[in-house]
Amino acid sequence: MMICRLRSLLSLAKCSSQPFQSPAAAAARTFSSSHHLQNVGFIGLGNMGSRMANNLIKAGFKLTVHDKNSDVLETFSQMGVSTKKTPYEVSEASDVVITMLPSSAHVIDVYTGPNGLLHGGKLLRPWLLIDSSTIDPQTSRNLSATISNYILKEKKGDWEIPAMLDAPVSGSIIAAEAGTLTFMVGGSEEALLSAKPLFLSMGKSTIYCGGAGSGSAAKICNNLALAVSMLGVSEALALGQSLGVAASTLTKIFNCSSARCWSSDAYNPVPGLMEGVPSSRDYNGGFASKLMTKDLNLALESAKLAGCKYPLTSQAQQIYTELCNGGYDAKDFSCAFRHYYSGMDEPLDH
């Protein structure tokens, strides 16, 4: 068992952008705090969160959950999982709380609103709060700073002050189901190492990005690159078809040449070219265009605050906003190929 744990820690260190402490020291720290991970609160049981929570249950963690959707709570209750009516009640029952919510406003409300996680004055039971929502970096930093002013009701190992990690994920609903998500983590590196068993129960890799807000920043940059990539592939495929080259032919060329990318070889936007992706099922499921638009809005605002140029961010944001306004907000973001570039409802020439 010790060897397996050490190998896992070595794997984590390889994924990190910064050096970790020695595996032996990390292992000792992780083992000493592992009993402080058993009672886990989970708030936000949507398409991603429900699957992440299920994987924690399978891994043997004791969960307490909350969601505004009473039907979802009933489903978890029937599984024998403790459900609570408010985030604060979850906090009072948990050593660690994970949140997976739609937006910055939702996160702020769950943490600081009436009956929120921080409702009980300056004392907290959880020693660690992990937010896996995709939100703006400044909100992550602000919450982390707020939590650093709290103290624990009961000392947990070496922890006297609660810690917070911003840990958004990369990966689809399928990855959430399979437990193969990638976590981009900002905050205390020591807290990340201590919580590593939680992350490994929900994902395949955990990449340390730096201080508070760095995980959120990395996620915004990742999704910006993804949006631009998908639009570039879609535009090129649509142009090729207009010039008489079949999308299937162009895809073969892309996938064995310099244009190769995830949007082409793993998530192709052309219906009928690839099985198991949203384009094969009328763009249902997957990552909704409205969520991509939200992330591009975050990227746009972050670029303005940072004083960076953002021509592609701005153009991508306009395209996805147009798709949403056109009634395709719930369709996967790869629908840009058909509903923006092709404008076709009839079968395509593959």
How many distinct domains?
2
CATH topology of the largest domain: Rossmann fold
Number of helical regions: 16
By DSSP, the count of extended strands is 11
Textual characterization of the structure:
- With 350 residues, the protein is α/β, with parallel strands linked by helices.
- It folds into 2 domains: 39-211, NAD(P)-binding Rossmann-like Domain (Rossmann fold); 218-340, N-(1-d-carboxylethyl)-l-norvaline Dehydrogenase, domain 2 (Orthogonal Bundle), CATH 1.10.1040.
- Helix content is 50%, strand content 13%.
- It is built from 16 helices and 11 strands.
- The chain has helices at residues 2-15, 23-33, 49-58, 70-78, 87-92, 104-112, 137-147, 173-178, 189-194, 196-202, 214-242, 247-255, 262-265, 289-306, 311-328, 336-342; strands at 39-43, 62-66, 82-83, 96-99, 123-124, 128-131, 151-152, 163-166, 169-170, 181-187, 203-210.
- The strands form 2 sheets. Strands 1, 2, 3, 4, 6, 8, 9, 10 and 11 form a 9-stranded mixed sheet that branches.
- Helix 11 (214-242) packs across helix 16 (336-342).
- The protein is elongated.
- Residues 1-33 and 344-350 have low confidence and may be disordered.
In brief:
With 350 residues, the protein is an alpha/beta fold. It has helices spanning 2-15, 23-33, 49-58, 70-78, 87-92, 104-112, 137-147, 173-178, 189-194, 196-202, 214-242, 247-255, 262-265, 289-306, 311-328, 336-342; strands at 39-43, 62-66, 82-83, 96-99, 123-124, 128-131, 151-152, 163-166, 169-170, 181-187, 203-210.
